[in-house]
Design a protein that fits this description.
seven-stranded mixed β-sheet, 49% helix
């Protein structure tokens, strides 16, 4: 038995719910769906989501205040009555017509986590969303073989996990960006058995480049806070390891001066139709060095 858990905030989930219902009914799968609205400010979307969920026989919960995705996931996990949980973000769709059937077939007592991966649409979006699209295509959309090289690193937009392992690893429920790094690190500390498969969801909800840049810097701030608290190793993320090398050779000041001098050109590129991920890394490293100083 599988509980499919969907936290949502100001996002229409009708297409996702319809597809999950179709797959469950087509193969008579032992799965239930629970949705939790995180106090959406758009009441029209929230009302429509609730109406569609109820019509399909799915359980629908609502938060009285905005708790954030992590705390809402904890609430959904508590409400679930099964040992296996499948967390899906509100802005994804299964890439395969047998997504759920395949996921259930992969569940086995030898595993704690099943991660099927993330995909992005073949057709590029408008310029305003290009940075998030390019980042996703090049940094997140990886095969099972590629992901298995660092087995404990997951992206929680689509995460199948035992309830017991989730509760052990979901140690922070505060709002924040970049918490997948902590969750992945906790999976590693718990020595979780992670199975990577090629059973992805397509990420449809692309933020604007402006929003993605702000979230990326917030994610760096979260990493620094967790590192200072001793909850993340200082060399866990690639950007931390690069910083350590710059510091070792006394180059942080030079890096900061040069990147500051070209900051306008860097931002202009990142908001263009052909953003450079190298410059994106420079942009984030600039912020990290400033935080360290």
């Amino acid at each position: 038995m599988l509980s499919i858990l969907i936290p949502t905030f100001n996002t229409a989930i009708g297409e996702l719910l319809q597809e999950l219902h179709r797959q469950i009914q087509a193969d008579q799968l032992p799965a239930t769906v629970l949705i939790c609205d995180d106090a959406s400010s758009d009441q029209a979307i929230a009302s429509q989501n609730k109406e569609q969920a109820t019509a399909l026989g799915f359980e629908y919960l609502s938060n009285t205040e905005n708790l954030g995705r992590t705390a809402t996931r904890s609430k959904l996990a508590e409400a679930a009555k099964t040992d296996w949980l499948l967390f899906l973000d509100a802005d994804v769709l299964p890439a395969r017509e047998d997504f759920l059937k395949t996921m259930l077939a992969d569940i086995h007592t030898n595993w704690d986590v099943i991660f099927g991966g993330i995909q992005y649409a073949a057709t590029p979006p408008q310029r305003e969303q290009m940075l998030r699209y390019v980042y996703g295509k090049k940094r997140e959309a990886k095969s099972a073989a590629q992901r298995s090289e660092k087995a404990h690193f997951i992206i929680s937009q689509s995460l199948c996990i035992t309830k017991n392992m989730f509760q052990k690893c979901n140690t922070i429920t505060a709002k924040g960006y970049g918490l997948d790094n902590l969750f992945s690190n906790n999976l590693k500390k718990q020595k979780a058995h992670v199975k990577h498969t090629d059973n992805p969801v397509v990420h449809l909800g692309l933020e604007s480049s402006d929003t993605f840049l702000k979230k990326s810097l917030a994610g760096i701030e979260t990493t620094m806070e967790l590192e200072a608290q001793g909850k993340l190793e200082a060399d866990l993320r690639p950007i931390q390891r690069v910083y350590n090398r710059l510091k070792k050779f006394g180059l942080t000041g030079v890096f900061l001066a040069v990147s500051n001098a070209f900051s306008r050109a860097i931002v202009k590129n990142l908001k263009s139709n052909n953003p450079s991920l190298l410059l994106f890394d420079v942009y984030r490293m600039n912020h990290l060095i400033k935080l360290k100083k």
